[in-house]
UniProtKB/TrEMBL annotation:
It holds the Pfam family Response_reg. Signal peptide: none annotated. CDD domains: REC_RR468-like. It comes from Labrys neptuniae. Keywords: Phosphoprotein, Transcription, Transcription regulation. This is Response regulator. It comes from the Bacteria.
């Protein structure tokens, strides 16, 4: 059974690169959303195993999207990780306090993105936290 990943970013090029990069991992099934509001619908309908969420998006930003995912019974159990250039320690601590399971630094390396996501999922499964 594939691991379903929803990648959310308002930038078309980044979404496309991320999707292609993640699909290099045969066990991943990947979909993408162009906005936080679209991600709420997509996550509720598709029930991914992980949402990768850009922090800075117009309209509904990543933190607000996470809050709304966590507030909905249909999406509250779906783990979320942020993909962001804002990775200073205090920012990562704030993201974790919001409920994110981890942070992937942007710009990410397309050749290792799938490996980073697998590590996030494995560490979540083992109960360890990832910075």
């Amino acid at each position: 059974m594939p691991t379903k990943i929803l990648y959310v970013d308002d930038e078309d090029d980044i979404r496309e690169i991320a999707q292609i990069s993640l699909e290099l991992e045969p066990q991943f099934e990947v979909r993408s959303s162009a906005s936080g509001s679209r991600a709420l619908v997509d996550a509720a309908e598709w029930q991914p195993d992980l949402v990768l969420l850009d922090v800075m998006m117009p309209g509904m930003d990543g933190p607000e999207t996470l809050r709304q995912l966590a507030a909905s019974a249909r999406t509250a159990a779906i783990p979320v990780a942020f993909v962001t250039a804002r990775t200073q320690t205090h920012e990562v601590v704030r993201y974790r306090a919001m409920g994110a399971i981890g942070v992937i630094a942007k710009p990410f390396d397309p050749m290792v993105l799938a490996k980073d996501v697998k590590r996030l999922l494995q560490e979540r499964g083992s109960g360890r936290q990832l910075l």
